[in-house]
Design brief:
- It contains five helices and no strands.
- It is mostly helical.
- The protein has a domain of 79 residues.
- The longest helix has 26 residues.
- The radius of gyration is 29 Å and the shape is elongated.
């Protein structure tokens, strides 16, 4: 078994454990899963060159926690920078009446129909 295969097996073994720790601490499955994936990627790139740390599980938990916190902070900052969404103009009662009497330009409104005549009486 080569060194890269041993590293891959180690990461596969530790991934669910690290995910469990993050879920227990922070909640939010998707966010935790993303953070664990980023930590695993960092480990896969760094460990072959620098060696596996003494406590790989702790290293992964620390890196994943930091990535998760960075994600949360980034999202909060993005929300603060973005103006609140407005889903339409606030209408006054007068503008509501005006809109109700206007018919769309593409359709014709009948002068009378059975249900409208009964309602208006």
């Amino acid at each position: 078994m080569s060194a890269s295969e041993r590293l891959e097996d180690l990461l596969r073994e530790l991934a669910p454990q690290v995910l469990g720790v993050l879920l227990h601490r922070y909640g939010g499955f998707e966010e935790c899963e993303d953070a664990v994936q980023e930590a695993l990627l960092a480990a896969a790139m760094q460990w072959p060159a620098e060696g596996v740390p003494e406590s790989p599980r702790s290293w992964l938990v620390t890196v994943a926690s930091r990535r998760l916190i960075d994600q949360v902070r980034s999202e909060q900052a993005r929300r603060r920078r973005r103006p609140p969404r407005r889903y339409g103009r606030r209408r006054t009662p007068a503008s509501r009446r005006t809109q109700a009497t206007k018919a769309p330009a593409t359709t014709t409104t009948p002068s009378r129909c059975c249900s409208c005549a009964a309602i208006r009486r």
